[in-house]
């Protein structure tokens, strides 16, 4: 990379547990070849502000831990290259989720609550036989299930959802995506009537305003737009 820059990371800092009110703080770092925001934030924490809070695990866009608002748009710090951003980069925590401190939010609490509410596990009428061979599945169906299972629960779709700003009980694209995934799975014995009881109201698929912010910001490129539209048609026909 030519003309490496001095970057300014403008971070919205706060620590509710310590009574620290939100305020902006600037940190300057020297840009490096192939630098990501994750690398830049680690440099800040190692050399400038050891108290800076943000989350990471895998550094490869798999764990979803480093979700944050990057120049106002939800994204993953480990996937955001500084060369694609301006010299001043504003960073803030994802909205909707409980704030832990600085850029760290409790996505796990929200995701677990949604999973329990939507019962996102395989429902079978008989106890599984752990010694039996796994039942075969058509490759195309297995691929379709795998596609929806790529969700890393990073929270970007939740943070980019206009409906969730208006309805705190909305299940969000991540919840609807989970329902779509288990609806495809032949091992799950639930019917569309059962799924209707979970998402067939304004807190579910009928509450979506179709702004599709979730689809635009998903770092894994999941087909959220298609799945929400499909579920809405299926749930509408079931409700009738």
The chain-level mean pLDDT equals 94
Any idea what the radius of gyration is?
A: 20 Å
Overall helicity: 25-40%
Which term fits the overall shape? Answer: elongated
Task: Sketch the major β-sheet.
Answer: 5 strands, mixed
Please give the number of β-strands: 7
CATH top level class name of the largest domain: Mainly Alpha
Distance between the termini: 59 Å
Oligomer: single chain
What's the helix-strand series? EEHEEEEEHHHHHHHH
Per CATH, what is the topology of the largest domain?
A: Fumarate Reductase Iron-sulfur Protein, Chain B, domain 2
* Name of the CATH superfamily of the largest domain: Alpha-helical ferredoxin
Contiguous uncertain segments of 5+ residues: none
């Amino acid at each position: 990379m030519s003309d490496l820059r001095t970057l300014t990371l403008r971070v919205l800092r706060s620590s509710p547990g310590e009574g620290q009110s939100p305020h902006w703080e600037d940190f300057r770092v020297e840009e490096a070849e192939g630098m990501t925001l994750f690398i830049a934030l680690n440099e800040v924490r190692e050399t400038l502000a050891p108290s800076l809070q943000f989350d990471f695990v895998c550094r490869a866009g798999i764990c979803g831990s480093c979700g944050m608002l990057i120049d106002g748009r939800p994204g993953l710090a480990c996937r955001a290259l500084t060369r694609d951003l301006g010299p001043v980069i504003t960073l803030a925590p994802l909205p909707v989720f409980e704030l832990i401190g600085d850029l760290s939010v409790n996505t796990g609490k929200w995701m677990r609550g949604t999973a329990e509410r939507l019962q996102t596990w395989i429902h079978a009428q008989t106890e599984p036989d752990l010694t039996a061979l796994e039942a075969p599945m058509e490759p195309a169906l297995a691929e379709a299930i795998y596609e929806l299972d790529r969700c890393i629960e990073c929270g970007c779709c939740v943070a980019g959802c206009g409906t969730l700003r208006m309805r705190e009980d909305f299940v969000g694209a991540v919840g609807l995506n989970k329902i779509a995934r288990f609806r495809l799975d032949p091992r799950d014995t639930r019917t569309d009537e059962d799924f209707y009881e979970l998402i067939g109201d304004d807190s579910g698929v009928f509450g979506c305003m179709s702004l599709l912010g979730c689809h635009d910001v998903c770092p894994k490129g999941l087909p959220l737009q298609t799945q929400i539209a499909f579920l809405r048609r299926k749930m509408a026909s079931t409700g009738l």
